[in-house]
Amino acid sequence: MIHIEFLSINNFRGIKRLDLSLGQQSFGICGNNGTGKSGVVDAIEFALTGNITRLTGKGMHGVSVKEHGPHVDSWEEPEKSVVILKAFFPDLKKTATIERCMRKPQDVKVSPPDADVLKAVAVLAEHPEFALSRREILKYVLTAPGDRSKAVQELLKINDVEVLRASLKKVVNTCKSEMENAEMNAESARNRLMAALRVEELKSDLILKAVNQRRKTLGLEALSVLEKDTTLKDGLATAGGAAKKGMDKKTALGELEKLGKLLLEDPPELSKSISKIVSTLVEFEKNPILIKNLRRQAFLTKGLDFIIEASCPFCDMKWGIEELKAHVLKKIKEAVNAVKAKEAMAGDVLRVRKVAGELDFLLGVAEGYGKTLSVPDGLFGGWRLALRDLSAQLESLDDVTAARSALKKGWHQVPDEGRKVLTLIEGKVKELPELSKEEEARDFLTVCQERLEHYRQEKRRHSALTEHHSLAVKAFAVYGKSSESVLKGLYQEVEADFSRYYRLINHEDESDFKGLLTPSLGSLGFEVNFFGRGMFPPGAYHSEGHQDGMGLCLYLALMKRIMGDQFTFAVLDDVLMSVDAGHRKEVCKLLKTEFPGTQFVFTTHDPVWLKHMVTEGMVNGKSVVHFRNWTVEGGPTVWDHKDLWTEISEDLEKDDVPGAAHDLRRSLEYVFHDLADGLRAKVEYRSGGIYDLGDILPPVCLVWEELMGKAIKSAESWEKGDKADALRKMLADFKEKYAKAQVERWPINKAVHYTEWANLQKEDFQTVVVAFHTLVDCFRCKECQAWVHVNPSRGQREILHCDCASFDYSLKSKPKEK
Amino acid sequence: MTPPGKTVTRVFADFLDQLATDKSIDPSVLSRLRETILVKSEIDPGAIREALFPKEKPS
Questions:
Q1: 3-class secondary structure, A536
Q2: ipTM of the complex model
Q3: Could you tell me which residues come within 8 angstroms of residue A635 by beta carbon, excluding any fewer than 6 positions away?
Q4: Which contacts (CB < 8 Å, 24+ apart) does range A430-437 have?
Q5: Cα-Cα-Cα-Cα dihedral sign, residues A266, A272, A277, A279
Q6: Pairwise CA distance, residues A580 & A549, whole Å
Q7: Distances A91 to A88, A459, A597, A799 between C-alpha atoms, Å
Q8: Using one digit for the tens of pLDDT, what is the confidence trace for A473-515?
C-alpha cells in the first residue's frame, strides 16, 4: 500500500485549490462542520480509486461522481477538476505521482509509469475501505446479522462466497422442482401403462402374464423375462400388421371408466389437502402483505439473474452491481414468513397438482379417443386449460382468490357439457365392433408397447433428475460445511484482534471484554460481553462512545486481516467523534503501538481532540491542518500549520501577550492533566473535578523528582552506572528548569487579570514561554515525542518509560542480599 | 497485501477438495466444477448448473 507525501486538490467538491504536505506522517484535519474536511477525504479516495463513495451510496440516485464531483463552479468543465497525489510505496520502495481527472475518473495517470507501481495502484483501487466514515464503520457494529455479513464480506472481499452459496442453492431448488415434475410425469405414464396392461400393480410377473396371454393368441413366443429393453410386441410385425387406429377398445373403456371414477370420487387424502390449502389461502387473502412479499420474492429471485450490468434491469437506473444485488437480496429476505407459509402447504399442493395432472391427462386420452371416433374435438380444451391454470396458480400463487374459489367449488368435477361429451365418447367406443381375439391381442400389444416406452422414458428422466437433485444437495451441503469452516477460522482471528484492541482502549473498566462473531450461512452474528453480565448485541447496553470504539476496533481488526503488514494507510473520517477524553489517549496508544507503520489521516471537528493527537505523539505539530471556515468561491480557509509554541511566538510577534498567555495556560493545563495521570501524581482531590494549573503542576514536578530518584537508586542497585549518571544529569537539569518556571509562573496564573497581561512586554513574556517550553520537554521522549509515563497504572510503580521504549528506566531496585 | 479474493479462492478450493472425497461423484463433474469456479471464475447459477449437468438440454 502507500504513504502519502503530498496532496493537491483542484476544483474538486467544495475545494477550489488546496495543497497539503502529509510527509508520509499521520495527519490531522480539523474544522467545524461544513469547512471542507470531507472534501479532502473524498479527494484521497478519488485519486486512489476513481470513485467517491459518498456520492454513490444508498439514497444518492441522480447524483454521480462525474457530474457532481467537480467544484460547483466547474461542473461543466470536469477537465479542471483534478486531484494529484504523491505517494511512497513502502514495499516497493518507490515514489510515484498519481493523478486523476474528473473528465475520465477511471483513467489514472501514474508517473513514472513503473509496472510494479501501476499494479499496486490497481490493487489500491480495489480497496476503497482505506477511507471510512464513522457512519460506515458503525454499520459493522449496529446492523442486522445479514447486513453485517454482507458489509464485512464486502470489506474482506469475500462476497463471492455468498454468491456461490446462493447459486448452489438456486441449482438445488431448480433440480427439486424438475425432479418433482418428472415424478408426476412418470407416475402418469405408469398409470397409463397399468391401464393398458389391465393390471393393478406394475410387477414383472403380472406384466408377463398379461402380455404372454396375447402373444400366445397371436402364436408368438412367450417372453420369459422382462428387461429394460424388452419389446412386448416382439415378432408382431411379421405376424400380421399394426394395431387398428392406434387404440385398443378394452384399454379405452378401462381408461374412460377410470376417468369417470376420478370425476365422481375424491381420491384419498385429497379433501384434507384441499382444506389445508384453502385455509392457507384465506390467510394470504386476509394479510395481503404476505402474498405481495411472496410475489415480489418470486419476481426478485428471477430478477437477480438479470443483474449483470451496473444498472437496474427493470428501469435502467444506475446502480453498482453488488449494491443492487444486496438491495434485492434484502427485499427477498423480507418475504421469509410468506415463503414459510407457502412451504408448509407444499406437500398438499403437490398432491392436488398430481390429481389435476392425472385428470388433465385422462381427459387428453379421452379427447384422443373422441377424435379417432369422430366426436367433435376441442370440447375439453377449456376444462383442461382451467386445470392447468389451477395447477400453475397453486405453484405460483399469482391469483390467490381465484385459486381458493376454484378449489372450494369442486374444481375437479365434470362440467355439464363435459359429461355429455364423455358419455358420447364412451358410447362410441362401446359401439366399436367386437374384435377378433387376434385383433384384440395385436392392439393390446401395440398400445402396451407404446406406453411402456413412454413410461421407460419418463422413468429414466425422473431417475436422472433425482440424481441431479442428489448431487446438487450434496454440493450445497459440502459447500456449507467447508465455507463455514474457513469463514469461522477467519472470523476467529478477527474476533481475537477486535477483543484485544477494545480491551486496550478500555483496560480500566473492561479488561475482561470479549466480542463474539458467529458466522452462519448468509449472516454474521456479533455479540459483546457487558461487564461480565453476559453476551449482548453491541447496541444493547454499551454507550455511543463505546460503540464508536467497537466500530474502530472491528475495522482495524478486519483491515489487519485483509492487509496484514501492508496496512500502511487509512483515513478515519470523524470516526472517533463520540470517544470521550478519557479514552482518546488510549485510542492514540492503540494506533501507535499496534499500527506503527500505518499513516492515518484523521478528520475531526473538535480542536481539543486534535491537540490530544499532537500531545500523544499520534501526529506531530506540523502534520495538522485546521480549517477556519469555508466559502463556495474559495473553499476551506486554512489556519497556518503550527504547533503550540509557534502559535505563541506568532501571538507575541503581533504583540498579543494576552493571547499568548491564554494559549500557554490552557495548553499547560491540558498537558499537566495528562502528565498527572500518566505519572500517577498525588493531586488534592476536588469534588467539582476542576483542577487548574496551580493544582496539578507542583504535584507532577514533585512526583517526577521522586520517580527519577527511584530510577537512580534502581540503576545503582543493578550496578548500571551509566544509566544512573544519565538520570542524575536529567534530574539536575529538570530541577533547574522547574526552578526557573516557578519564578516565571505568575503571568500565567488564572487569577491574573487581562489588564496585567496588557502591561506585560512581549520580551518579558518570551522568557516565560521559554521557561515552560523547556520544562515541558523534560517529560517527553526525545525520540517518539510521547509523554513519559509510569507502569503499571495501579499498584507498585515498576517502570518509567515512553511508548517507543527509548526512554526506559526500571523503578525496582535489586533486592538486598540477606 | 492479501489480494482481493484470496480467502474466496481458499473457500472455493476447500469446497472442491471436500467434494472430491465423495467417491460417488464422477471425477469429470469435479473437473468441470474446478474449471468453472477456479479457472473461469464463473459462479452464477447457470455456470454451476452447466458444470454439474453438462449433457442436459435446456428445457
A1: strand
A2: 0.92
A3: A14, A15, A16, A17, A18, A36, A39, A71
A4: A430/A253, A432/A249, A432/A373, A434/A249, A435/A244, A435/A249, A437/A217
A5: positive
A6: 10
A7: 9, 63, 11, 36
A8: 999 999 988 888 877 887 888 899 999 999 998 887 888 898 8
Determine if the pTM surpasses 0.80.
Answer: no
Helix (H) or strand (E) holding A791: strand A789-791
**Helix, coil or strand: residue A188:** helix
For residue A620, which phi and psi values (nearest 5 degrees)? -90, 165
Spatial neighbors of A215 by CB under 8 A, at least 6 apart, are A221, A222, A223, A441, A445
List the single residue in B8, B11, B48 with the smallest CB-CB distance to A167.
B48
Cell numbers found for residue A558:
478486519
Cβ–Cβ gap A157/B7 under 8 Å: yes
CB A804 within 8 A of CB A786: yes
**Nearest Cα residue to B38 out of B26, B25, B51:** B51
CA nearest neighbour of A381 among A361, A356, A402, A364: A364
Write out pLDDT tens, residues A118-156. Answer: 988 888 887 777 777 666 776 776 666 666 667 777 777
A336 with A233: CB under 8 angstroms? no
Find the largest Cα–Cα distance for chain A. Answer: 139
Q: Is A531 exposed, middle or buried (0-12, 13-18, 19+ CB in 10 A)?
A: exposed
CB B30 within 8 A of CB B44: no
The Cα–Cα gap between A685 and A682 comes to: 9
Amino acid at residue number B13: A
| Cα–Cα distance for residue pair A610/A581, rounded to 1 Å | 11
**Can you point out the beta strands (E) in A49-145?**
82-89, 94-101, 108-111, 131-133
- The cell numbers describing A345, all together, are 402447504
pLDDT tens-digit profile of A745-784?
Answer: 666 665 554 555 556 778 888 888 899 999 999 999 988 8
CB contact under 8 A, B14 and A486: yes
CA distances (Å), A412 to each of A191, A368, A389, in order?
18, 20, 13
- Structure-block grid coordinates of residue A189: 405414464
Chain B CB within 8 Å of residue A168 CB:
yes
| d(C-alpha A576, C-alpha A580), whole Å | 9
Chain B residues within 8 A of A161 when measuring between CB atoms? 7-8, 11
A27, β-bridge pairs: A601
Interface check for B23 against chain A (CB to CB < 8 A): the answer is no
Using CB atoms within 10 Å of the CB of residue A532, give its burial: 0 to 12 exposed, 13 to 18 middle, 19+ buried.
exposed
A625: part of which helix (H) or strand (E)? strand A624-631
Q: Is A655 helix (H, G, I), strand (E, B) or coil?
A: coil
Identify whether the C-beta of residue A788 lies closer than 8 Å to the C-beta of residue A802: yes
Cell triple for A120: 499496486
> Helix A145-155 and helix A159-197: axis angle, to 10°?
120
Q: How many angstroms away from the CA of B22 is the closest CA of chain A?
A: 9
Residues near A34 by Cβ (< 8 Å), separated by ≥ 6?
A: A630
A24 has pLDDT over 90: yes
Please tell me the distance from the alpha carbon of residue A707 to that of residue A731, in angstroms, as a whole number: 10
Sheet with A15-21: strands ordered across: A15-21, A3-12, A82-89, A94-101, A108-111
Cell numbers given for A379: 370440447
Three-state DSSP class for residue A526: strand
CB pairs under 8 A between A and B: 90
Residue A549 in grid coordinates: 470504539
